[in-house]
Structure to design on (1410 residues):
């Protein structure tokens, strides 16, 4: 199962829009619970944009680990089939006490062209995983293998990650501020308004840097808005 | 989907075996991660034995609540179809900030003959739910409706509840100590050895009450074991 | 400062409406963050309705405790001036490691006719406080005096308690499910619709008890609604 | 090793003094970190006074469990040797995920005349343990045996329990408010002043019940103090 | 409201004294609860010294957000009026789930000459805020706007931040170890003794580096003290 | 007390084996609870291998601090006697609210040739401690002296650190993934199999980098194993 790819133009817009700006626009649409919280980027300088694939772990239970945890399990199948431009999002219940991937699986996702991996569990071999070069968001490093805390169970269903629901096919965007989930139907509008707001905010920042108070300027009143529109209208 | 019912004799044995005794026997089989933790019984005097049915909630996400949260949703379908002698186990991610059932749904499960409800979320109308008479285990009371924190999503799949994995068809047993999940294939043996251990422990308790040290007695050495066997062998 | 008292008729309606029902109606008005979470009632059988008075504690800081913590401090002034029918709500930052009131202050509030005390801190002399008879909600018992964790600082300003903002003059309602804060302007409407919903829910409960599925009934479809209206219209 | 027993008169005074009153007096001596927090009494109506014996558990480590966890281990030796009037205090690191004692060990401590058991871990067979009649303070119920989370390691050394340091020979007092640790050298003075304060507080409570403000009365100013002294001086 | 500025000489001493050294001296004055915990510096190499200004957020409540959250609210007024050399300290209740400032407000504080911003909430646009160059301490990054978790409520009153009480006019000092609050009346003495202790500790460090045990040296006994005094007395 | 030193060859193998690889091998021996969790390295690039020495802190209790906390206490004695190649492991109960060592003690351990310091408490003077050059693992930075939260109590006994039991003489290995405790009797075998597994994993990583799926390769089936053995057998 590979979701419809992102149109290149939309992907490019999302790549330019900060996660903070996208978050503000989603809030205007009434969406407040769309951030994957408690994870941090191994490569904070890398912007992530992709389509969500999902993988679900359940708490380790010794009898089930024997049936589901070993060999070519759900985790490995997910990494072998993640597609170009996809973000593999893993439900690990916020559990920090084991790795949920290591360098070999990170390499596999990278080789498949995946855009990123997001897990609300830990990462093993954190230095090697970082060196692979695929952006990874995780709750931290832990040396233990998956089985200490988890059984890889199933994939391609809606999951909870970092307190947010992620549905396969959702758009996932990440930067140094964190990771956000965007319903596909809203992505175009949210990207456009976020970029417009970014432009206005950059202009406001210039005025503030020049010594203007935020009163009336942030948000802009009619006077400032007029001046902004005039400047932006210049050829 | 209704799982194979428990044989009456096995159900009766499990009803007599304390959860603590079953837990100790499961540990002998290498199963340590089988307790649903962080929940407490509304009716602590009631022993619970049943077959697991499952229901999964995901974190509230405003756009998905509109599509999945309203009307005859997954939650309501689960309560309308839970079977005689079944325990409805709900994955609510340990979130205390909303109810995950109220008195009407508790009544419905009770009317269907369900054995109990176990949720690692809250309960609304806790007095009314308690009055219904069906045993309920939950993390606490909260007045808010489900939608404050959750979207009812799907049912009849393996879930996480209170840190334990619960698979539909597992046997669920609860008492004042908590709730335990027993893989069906082990239930008969675990019930038998738990009851045998209970008998031995009751006899040990008598000796301790009479003033004997636990040294050599708990666990029993050969001398005490012999005496125990002799007493139990008497007509 | 004593807030305008509750009209007796409104107070009576709020006394009859469960907190869970009021919570559901507030949600319909877009208010989800109005519950004081993490507190439990010392007298779970007592319904609470009153007008909020507020008291704010800050973290103990040794130099400030000397200036603000002793003698006739903000805490004692608040208990000496809380009015008839008021609920004294205390900001204690969820800190369980000290008492925030004891039996003498509980007696004083009771003597003043206060409706209840809500604190997201601990209670000292929990048995004596319970015996006073004024409803108290708290995070638990702790033997230490206030000064172990707090400085009583000021009163009659908006505060945070149990994760909710409470403004003096808000209406506070509590029962076994917890405590809710109602903006005064919404109270009449919320009380009326909550009672109407309670009536409908009680009727639905009867049908469920009689064996009807919740499908179509909870919430009611047109057929059930018609039947309900007809029954309620009977003399 | 059995500590010097409490003098009967001191024991009686401590039995009459509420933990809250003792806590306030210890604070006057600069002792703020003497409460065992996060535990609750299985028998809230029972006052506890005794001399501390200690037992220390370490986190389960599979290789060490084999050498230290089985047979007549440190836990069982402690229960076999706890003395008349002693309180067995157990360091379980606040871990709720297993029992740290069950009914047989509770019976043994009871048969030895122990005053109470305090553990910042769980209790198995909570109903049976409660029925034994020895006061127990614990963080909650859990069905699992000790070995799920702990190795019984050693006894009769200073430990941490519920955030407080407990040294063998300390005096331990518990009631519904919680458990406090009193250095033996301070016990006599603290008990005397606590009882005196209790008497004064009871008299203050009477005045407050009669409608007096706490201003000037709690704490008492010279006028009230004079009146109090006069009344207490009456034959 | 702008507090009395720090005397340049005192400011310079505080700039040279490590927060750890100031903390040790405050403890000698009996002040243990003066650290703002749980925050980390965005610019760990930058020493911060300034006078506290305060800003208080309350939990988001939908009706109050409409009246207090929008336009030129308390947050924006605080950033527009923070003074030269002041540290804006924000009470955000330790809540990590939203930003409490972004780059435009950081720029404004920087343009006003503020010494730093300390918030026990999150930061949006963390890369842009870091680039502004004003030192910021926060609990982490979060992309969401303030309103997801907070209402900006009032300013210039005593607040709680990171578990410490901060009064407007307090002196705030921060470095890589964290942030400390110093009552103004103690600042001169604490700065002087901290610098003296730093000098002694640096000398002790030299001796330890040279292979001396800490026994007798740290803290210094009479012999070492004499040698230290002699060396420091040399021209 | 100085434990038997590590044989140089074993030390060298452990230095080359990643903690993640050692963890996986210990799990094969049934040891899952051997990681010191919740600590992070001040020098993440430095591999640590050494023999455990232990030091135990108890919660600050004001009367005991006077007798045990000052002068040449257990903490200072431990740093003065830690041996060449030893890792000083400190039990601080995960408490972040004070330092548990500063630069002078770090220098002393470094001068004694200690391999590292591991504490599940905080570090004071974090920049100076980092500059000393001895690897330190801690829960974070805090400016306060030890006595704010702890009393240094005793040394050279089994302790709990970061959720793991550490016995003096255990082998401690740390890298960017975290810290692991190895029972000495298993060290040789675990090091050998970990290095062998590392070699195999490196070869697997090459295949994955070349585009092979993990199916059949990770873990290796017979075909891949044969190819691997053949390549490794080449001169």
């Amino acid at each position: 199962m590979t979701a419809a790819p992102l149109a290149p133009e939309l992907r490019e817009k999302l790549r330019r829009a900060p996660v903070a700006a996208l978050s503000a626009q989603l809030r205007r649409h009434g969406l407040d619970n769309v951030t994957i919280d408690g994870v941090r980027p191994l490569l904070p300088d890398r912007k992530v944009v992709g389509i969500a694939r999902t993988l679900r772990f359940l708490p380790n239970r010794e009898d089930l680990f024997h049936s589901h945890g070993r060999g070519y399990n759900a985790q490995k199948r997910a990494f072998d089939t993640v597609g170009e431009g996809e973000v593999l999002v893993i439900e690990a219940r916020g559990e920090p006490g084991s790795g949920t991937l290591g360098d070999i699986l990170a390499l596999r996702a990278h080789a498949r062209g995946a855009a990123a991996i997001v897990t609300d569990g830990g990462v093993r071999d954190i230095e090697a995983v970082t060196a692979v070069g695929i952006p990874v968001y995780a709750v931290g490093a832990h040396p233990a293998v998956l089985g200490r805390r988890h059984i890889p169970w199933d994939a391609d269903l809606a999951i909870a990650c970092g307190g947010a629901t992620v549905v396969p096919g959702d758009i996932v965007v990440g930067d140094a501020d964190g990771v956000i989930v965007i319903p596909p139907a809203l992505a175009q509008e949210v990207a456009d308004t976020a970029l417009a707001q970014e432009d206005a905010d950059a202009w406001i920042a210039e005025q503030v840097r020049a010594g203007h108070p935020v009163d009336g300027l942030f948000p802009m009143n009619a006077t400032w808005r007029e001046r902004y529109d005039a400047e932006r209208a210049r050829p």
